[in-house]
């Protein structure tokens, strides 16, 4: 299998992004304010906590966006609100021809949007579909891969769409923001949406960045006190953004080391190993035998996490060993029997490889015992 993982920031690039986050905070908060837990409730001037408004300005500055809004519902909620701001019920929406992420499919159904598919790996097909389907009113582009052979670049896809039709583009930046050099908005999209929980921030808070008119519409509609992201939550979003770039760059470096060592034959019985964005950038390990499920069971006993909390949240420290993503399973159901997905999280390569090796040894021992 050939995959086309997104290029991760180097450690040096991640450090520069961290410095940009801190510089942006100093431009909006006084020193004593940045050490506080923020305020609660609605200010008369902004209709939201003052510290939440300041945090939104910081985030817009970090990502070169006209505006930012912190919302309820994590990344999925941000996408839902972003599409609502751009489109009306019954509108046609250009999407990639690939399995759609479950919560995104639910959003399209809830909003009454009609998906029209084009292969985003082929710019000529994007152009053709947009010219033939003149009533397409917007586009949704997922930054990370939806199927194993996806190889499109965000900037090229957005440029192709915008160059063919003047329609709004929303990008799903989950698992890509602060790993890639540019957000979807920095690639030319109108809105980018992602979860703070995947960036070491608080649970349930989503981030929308982009065009001021769409952001203002959402702010106007989300006026009640109970819908506001409170000051302490906004401050926690900034805390996460400060630490996420370097942590994610180290995580990417560990994944690359694991792939190299496994490809070199360090663990007998591993047929192949490679990196893929499915949905987060992970290590895919393919075994010579159909032992994937048994290995996952043993890996948990050896200290590996069996499933995500928030997929790269602040709670996930140990490496995560779990089944390949639903979109990859749909693309090739047979992969589930011989392949697993590993996210190193905060672990080093030695720990990841040790757990793979010991888990495989336990599976073989169990098979030998049952045969005997």
Question: How does this structure look, described?
Answer:
With 372 residues, the protein is an alpha/beta fold. The relative contact order is 0.14. The model has no long low-confidence stretch (mean pLDDT 94). The chain has 13 helices and 11 strands. The strands form 2 sheets. The protein has a 7-stranded mixed beta sheet, sandwiched between helices. It has helices at 11-28, 31-34, 50-62, 74-86, 102-111, 123-132, 154-164, 212-221, 231-263, 292-301, 326-331, 335-338, 349-371; strands at 67-72, 92-96, 114-118, 136-142, 169-172, 191-195, 205-210, 270-277, 281-287, 320-323, 339-343. It is globular.
Helical element count?
13
Computed CA radius of gyration, to the nearest angstrom: 22 Å
Overall spatial form: globular
Mean pLDDT: 94
What is the β-strand count? 11
User: Helicity, in percent?
Assistant: 40-55%
Which stretches are low in confidence, meaning pLDDT under 50 for 5 or more residues running? none
- Report how far apart the termini are: 36 Å
- Assembly type of the shown chains? single chain
Please report which band the strand proportion falls in: under 5%, 5-15%, 15-25%, 25-35%, 35-45% or over 45%: 15-25%
Q: Main β-sheet: number of strands, strand sense, barrel status? A: 7 strands, mixed
User: What is the N-to-C succession of helices and strands?
Assistant: HHHEHEHEHEHEEEHHEEHEHHEH
Strand order of the largest sheet: 1-7-6-5-4-2-3
| Main structural class | alpha/beta
């Amino acid at each position: 299998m050939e995959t086309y993982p997104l290029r991760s920031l180097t450690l040096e690039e991640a450090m520069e992004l961290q410095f940009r986050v801190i510089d942006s905070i100093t431009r909006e908060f006084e020193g004593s304010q940045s050490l506080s837990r923020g305020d609660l409730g609605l200010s008369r001037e902004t209709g939201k906590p003052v510290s939440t408004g300041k945090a939104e300005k910081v985030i817009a500055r970090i990502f070169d966006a006209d505006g930012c809004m912190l919302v309820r519902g994590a990344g999925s909620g941000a996408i839902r609100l972003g599409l609502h701001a751009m489109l009306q019920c019954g509108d046609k929406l250009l999407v990639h021809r690939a399995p759609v992420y479950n919560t995104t499919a639910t959003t399209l159904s809830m909003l009454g949007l009609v998906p029209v598919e084009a292969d985003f790996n082929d710019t000529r097909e994007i152009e053709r579909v947009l010219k033939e389907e003149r009533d397409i009113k917007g586009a949704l582009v997922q930054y990370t891969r939806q199927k194993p052979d996806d190889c499109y670049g965000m900037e090229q896809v957005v440029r192709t769409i915008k160059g063919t039709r003047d329609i709004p583009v929303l990008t799903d930046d989950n698992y890509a923001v602060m790993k890639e050099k540019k957000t979807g908005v920095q690639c030319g999209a109108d809105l980018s949406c992602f979860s703070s929980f995947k960036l070491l921030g608080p649970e349930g808070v989503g981030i929308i960045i982009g065009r001021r008119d769409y952001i203002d519409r959402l702010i106007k509609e989300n006026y009640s006190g109970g819908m506001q992201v409170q000051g302490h939550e906004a401050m926690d979003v900034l805390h996460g953004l400060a630490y996420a770039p370097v942590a994610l760059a180290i995580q990417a470096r560990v994944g690359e080391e694991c792939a190299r060592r496994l490809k070199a034959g360090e663990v007998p019985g591993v047929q192949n190993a490679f990196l893929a964005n499915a949905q987060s950038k992970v290590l895919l390990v393919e075994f010579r035998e159909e032992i994937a499920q048994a290995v996952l069971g043993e890996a948990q006993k050896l200290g590996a996490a069996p499933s995500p909390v928030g997929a790269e949240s602040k709670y996930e420290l140990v490496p995560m060993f779990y089944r390949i993503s639903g979109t990859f399973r749909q693309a090739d159901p047979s992969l589930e029997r011989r392949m697993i997905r590993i996210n190193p999280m905060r672990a080093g390569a030695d720990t990841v490889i040790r757990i793979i090796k010991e888990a495989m040894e336990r599976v073989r021992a169990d098979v030998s015992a049952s045969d005997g």
